[in-house]
Amino acid sequence: MAEILVLMEHRQGEMQDINLEMLAKGQQLAEQTKKELTAVLLGKGVASMADEIKRYCHHTLVMEDDLLANFNSEPYQDVLSFLLKERKPSLVLMGHTAFGMDLAPPLATATETPLATDCYEIEVKGDTIIPYRQMYAGKMCAEVHFKEAPCHMITVRAGSFPAEGLKEINGAVEQVSFQFDKDYAYKKFLQYVEAAVGDVDITQADVLVAVGRGIGDPENLPMVEELAKLLGGVVACSRPVSDKNWLPKERQVGTSGKTVKPKLYIALGISGAFQHIAGMKNAATIIAVNKDAKAPIFSVAHYGIVDDLLKVVPGIVAKVRERKGA
Amino acid sequence: MDIIVCIKRVPEVAEIDLQVDQTGKGIQEEGLVFAVNDWDNYAVEEAVRMKEKHGGKVTAITVGSEESEDVVRRALALGADEAVVVTDPQAEGSDAYAIAKILAAAIKDIPYDIILTGALADDDGCAQVGATLAELLGIPHATLVTAIEIEEKQVKVKRELEGGLEEELVVATPALFTIQSGINEPRYVSIMGIRKVAKIEVATRDLGALGLSPDQVGSAGSFITVEKIFPPPAGEGAQILEGSPDEVATKMMDIFQKGGVV
User: Fold this and answer.
1) Nearest Cβ partner for B223 among A114, A213, A264
2) CATH 3.40.50.620 at A3-175, yes or no
3) Does ipTM top 0.90?
4) Phi-psi region of B216 (alpha: psi -120 to 50; beta: other; left: phi over 0)
């Protein structure tokens, strides 16, 4: 029986959240296409993770080796190429993460498996798998068709599929019989580098006033800092602002920065790339100010102002001052 | 240290109301401003910095329409030494895999130690060409690179992971790295700078010159095709506050008060 293969992701001994999201979607796709669901777990000392994963799959394939302890696309690719040949899955899912972005393209190329990256939805029409992805910084969605092939591969956007509703399957854990024939000296993991700790921890703030590309110039930052201070909050930012070093990296909200959940999040001149939205969508109240009425940030904001932040902020600052009697 | 940097010409879409074109598979390009992909800009800067520090030559390559000469000219102005534009109507409709095949064919006669690409492109956002190209060339790669330090015969790089974490790894050359934004501060390119490189000849190649047949590229040579595009569903969306700046500020105050922050 053909199967759907889902690659599990872990780092520093922790399972990544996307695993359960992919398993939930994988269960649904397996049911729709009458296939079995198989998880692949590669690492070192991952037995307890296997026990968790096997609850939701028909098969959990495990391989433990020092070469797999920390992610390295090279040995991972060789094990997966072997598994694809051996088990002939009809579909392979992995995360569109730092892990999947490094691994999926070369694996797909080496095994001649058509690949669709960064997909937020996967539909089944008849026998056909239809992935959906976004283009043009989230301003367009695309229905994608695969070239016909015995196996297809999809990398999944984090947060796209709810992990709730996973069914208990309680399949078996099986060992992968693969032998490495080299030590991969040409690509070696050295160490993790933790983010610098700054003077402000934006994850602890009740109010965040976040700025994006729309701030235009670092000279405009004091105005935003004043608003944050008046509201008892701190200033955060989106990627373009920290890329330019206008604010330190530890102020960056999003997938590669911090995930925040303040009472109030004011997004100023932030268009709302999905990586940013992933880091702030759970804020209790979100207000977005952006010149572009079509900016994706307005799809997650509760309140929006379609205008230039440089025109809007001074008025708000004055009003808060007035109300506070300052 | 010879470096190849692969770049792409893309439309600027920030603050633009994009429309689906007549085919239903693309956007209307009329009136859009095209520029070098943001990530590629960092890649070119990184390539030029490596050359300045370690010597060697930087070659910029792009696959696209004839207009793509703009972006390689810009790379020359930034400090690249040579440039290649691969352009062919047959290449239209190529996915990331087919583009990587074209790049691999274009690169095979150019000596290199390091290949750089942007981590992803602003338009399709696939984040796929770089690592695919490395596999086709049979060289190691690292994606989402935020720091590069050249040592003898190997390169130490940092990769961006999630949640502010990075990893450090060593990769033997020749190797390919996809560059994450923020790795450097790209230098400013003036009109004068672009004029200065106007005399440098840009090599133009079609698929025949690269030894590629039409069925290897375009939609025939691709793994995926875009069937249709559409704007994202509106969802609930934000309640838009309207009025004069003063009225808007007053409405904001009410929201602040309701949220208990003032």
Assistant:
1) A114
2) yes
3) yes
4) alpha
